[in-house]
Design brief:
With about 220 residues, this protein is an alpha+beta fold. About 20% of the residues lie in helices and about 40% in strands.
Length: about 220
């Protein structure tokens, strides 16, 4: 039988949690971190891949795999390309260099409830002949390889500036995302250029509840 004292203690815990939410302490639903690649010295040219890229992404629980042979995925300084217009310069993530279909997989150490990212824009007037941008799809899957959702844009051609655009994929339990592109062998962008990947931080309120619960059980056992 639950005693009145235990009921009161539970009410206190619930009240503290509600108070922290009211004071703006983030929950899993609103606590996020943005991976913008800007802490990496990407240098000139194509940028950096390999261990530099992998070490940076590992800090956010992200690994890359299933990269199309003949290509690699680079952290690239967009200022070296007069065509890219990104949401948070200077760096972006882009796959180079293969005409036609190419793809890679982004794996997450802990399943995500949602995944956000930004498709970088272009400065269309930077090229007198205009710019073509590849068809692309980013698809989210769970650990059982079940498709949870996808974002897609058809290939387009422009003489004008096109702004960056944010997208969000929803879980639950996103284990990995496949980033697939196809420029259909036209000159221009061979693969989608990504920036500002947004992933949830650990559940602050869940950690708080676990800590308060542990303290309550410890006190009760005395």
């Amino acid at each position: 039988m639950i005693s009145a004292r235990n009921v009161a203690r539970a009410a206190v815990v619930a009240g503290l949690a509600a108070l922290l939410v009211a004071c703006g302490v983030p929950t899993q639903a609103d606590a996020t971190t943005t991976v913008n690649f800007d802490a990496v010295n990407a240098g000139d040219g194509w940028g950096v891949a390999g261990s530099v890229r992998d070490d940076y992404l590992a800090g956010y629980g992200i690994t890359l795999s299933h990269i199309t042979p003949g290509t690699d995925v680079y952290i690239n300084d967009q200022s070296t390309s007069e065509w890219i217009n990104t949401s948070s310069p200077p760096n972006v993530l882009r796959q180079l260099f293969l005409q036609g279909p190419n793809s890679y997989r982004m794996n997450f150490a802990s399943p995500l409830e949602e995944l956000g990212f930004t498709r970088s824009g272009v400065d269309g007037d930077a090229s007198p002949g205009g710019i073509s941008y590849c068809e692309w799809t980013v698809s989210a899957y769970n650990s059982s390889d079940v498709l949870l959702g996808s974002a897609h844009e058809d290939m387009w051609f422009t003489y004008s500036d096109v702004p960056s655009a944010p997208f969000t994929l929803h879980g639950p339990d996103i284990a990995y995302a496949v980033v697939a592109s196809d420029n259909h062998y036209y000159a221009g962008y061979p693969a989608v250029v990504l920036d500002d990947i947004v992933i949830p931080e650990p559940a602050t309120m869940s950690l708080l509840a676990a800590g308060l619960g542990a303290l309550w059980l410890k006190k009760r056992r005395r």
